[in-house]
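Quarterly update, task 2.4: histidyl-adenosine monophosphate-bound model.
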Amino acid sequence: MINALRGMKDLTFEESERFVHIVTTAIGIAKKYGYEYIETPILEETKLFKRSVGESSDIVGKEMYQFTDKGENDVCMRPEGTAGVVRAFVQAKLDRQQSAKFKFYYYGPMFRYERPQKGRLREFHQFGCESFGEASVYEDFTMIQLIGDIFKALGIGYNLQINSLGCPTCMPSYRQNLVGFLTECQEELCEDCNRRIDTNPIRVLDCKNEKCQMLLKDSSKLINNLCQSCDDDFKKLVKLLNREEINYEINTNLVRGLDYYNKTAFEFVSNEIGSQSAIAGGGRYDKLVEFLDGKATPAVGFALGIERILELVQMPQIEREGYYLGVMDDGAIDALFPLASRKRTTNKVTVEYEAKKLKAHLKGADKVHARYCAFIGEDEFKNGTIWVKDLVSKEEITLTQEEF
Ligand code: HAM
């Protein structure tokens, strides 16, 4: 038997129903906020992710599904959606349009060669939104509201964590001070953090090692060292969240695992799904379009992890709908098809090809959650009629096939 690869899974039946429910709910809400669908390839040039997600990130450094294709191109299965959307935005020259404002949503599989565990897969699915051309912090707030609306519609509780990652004006001097601080306590930091001092010192802030976290308690925090513009925006965001009574927590160690962020960073966390608790994350990435050879365009976005949310979502009660059609005798089956086609123009229709007794058909109708079970038995076949039972009201009726 051939099994799916480690860290990759099949979704079927009730689970795949919930998957579709999450995606359709998220799409409905994203559309209300003015987002339009974008589809980008799963396979991209490796350098796209190196340049955007960052060479020093774990994703690019350790987790890429990277290979050389038959044309000797260095390619990679996308580990996330933002880089591809930005590439598409620049490729379509949308950055060149006057006061260009574009909002895109997407969903689909992402690939990261991580150590699989509960909530951490090698192939997982994200739903995401990317907003281009809006520098205002109101857009960051609106995006947080959008995610909140999705979780509300899905009936999911969460904790929102926010931080500011500064900008090229304030981040470099903070990073320099942090490197000084980390170098002084270098010997006590874990092996990973020692490496990060040179490659990506900011990532030390969200190290999971308890000892590193203890040491960091005494380090100065970026939100206390922001430039005027970043400080104003962060205070404004906090004010808007307070005003709209959206609960949040300022997490000064929230740096996100991707290098393209500046200013607002946020994560939605659930305390009901174990250690892999981030159910959505995102933030502002005002430099990425430029970095990928486009015209400077402010941008903000997020993605949510569908498999993690699957664990939290209850399906709404399935309502009975449509028709189930069955016969008692093989000879009558041909009579079902014109009836099925006619009904299917406005209804969900299931046809059972195997001739069975009525009782078995009623069970079949129940299984597919049909509202009506329609049946051609011996008498009905002879008379050109059809027997119909409403499985909600329990009413039974015999109609001519024309009337049906
Ligand atoms: P991210 O935080 O890397 O951000 O991923 C977003 C969400 O994807 C996470 O919060 C989590 O729910 C889910 N996720 C990530 N890795 C896994 C995994 N191995 N298994 C299952 N679920 C996972 C991004 O990807 C950014 N592109 C978000 C963004 C969009 N920022 C701006 N625009």
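Highlight for this quarter: Residues 13-32 form the longest helix (20 residues).
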